[in-house]
Amino acid sequence: MLERINTDIDAGKPVNELELIFAPLMESRLPVKEILFKTIQLEKKIKDETIKNKIIALTLVVSNRLVEPEILEEIWEEIKMLKILKYAEDKGIEKGIEKGKSEELRFIVIGVSPV
Predict the structure, then answer these.
(1) How many Cβ atoms are within 10 Å of 77's Cβ, its own excluded?
(2) Quick one: 74 and 93 in the same domain?
(3) CA pair distance 2, 63, nearest whole angstrom
(4) Total domain count for the chain?
(5) In terms of residue numbers, what domain contains 37?
(6) What is the pLDDT of residues 48-103, one digit of tens each?
(7) CA dist list (Å): 60 to 6, 53, 97, 112, 114
(8) CA dist., res. 112 & res. 109, Å (int)
């Protein structure tokens, strides 16, 4: 299936996005990790940035419980500059800063040093 999708992408043909998203869940002789990496590599070849970003994000969500955190970290390092993932990372940082300010304010209000 991945070979067929690769051929279609190279030929500029439309691909079935659901096949790509769920490829790591499909039964195969290959380990899930290898299928996930191959799937992400194919998804990165999609020319439409919006579709590419969404498909990669959804593939990671679907694969989250299938692979170890270290593998997801490897993949994240490779694709984190995609707009949607960069946006999610920035939002997470923003929320962390807000929570930190909130905690600091709570300590100040009750008269306790946060350190």
Answers:
(1) 9
(2) no
(3) 16
(4) 2
(5) 2-79
(6) 888 888 888 888 888 887 878 788 777 777 776 665 556 666 677 778 777 776 76
(7) 19, 11, 25, 41, 36
(8) 8
